[in-house]
Amino acid sequence: MNEEPLCVYLSGEIHTDWRELIESGCKEAGLDIDFLGPVTDHASSDDCGVVILGPEADDFWKDRKGAGINAIRTRTMIERADVVVVRFGDKYKQWNAAFDAGFASALGTPLITLHDPEINHPLKEVDGAALATAETPEQVVRILKYVMEGTL
Length: 152
Fold this sequence. Notes:
There is one protein chain. By secondary structure, the protein is an alpha/beta fold. The chain has a domain at 6-39 and 80-149: Rossmann fold. The protein is built from six helices and five strands. The chain has a five-stranded parallel beta sheet with strand order 2-1-3-4-5, sandwiched between helices. Strand 1 (6-12), helix 1 and strand 2 (33-36) form a beta-alpha-beta unit. The protein is globular. The model has no long low-confidence stretch (mean pLDDT 95).
């Protein structure tokens, strides 16, 4: 494709190993990809605002501080990405993942959604903005391989 590695931001669900599966699959395929992603340690993500900027008595303001600092990281990395992959799990509501998908779409960054078919209906608008909707990390790897090499 070109001399520089593809930059892929992996957004969404943090309770399974889907990121590792995509990264290892791309490595096995010999793809030159730089992966970016959010902080996946829940405590660090939740507490970054009060640890860095000081304590809050009200959880609303604690969350607000953390959300702001996390948004600096997320927006910077999504803006840097060539492709954004957003994983939606079925166990938790990933409002932040939906926001990331919308932000990538608004920027015109190619978007791939990844989720089980059982949640197709609630994600129909998000999937409508995506250029591809995958059901497995292996499908994402195959999409990225095709994007980079133009081969099946």
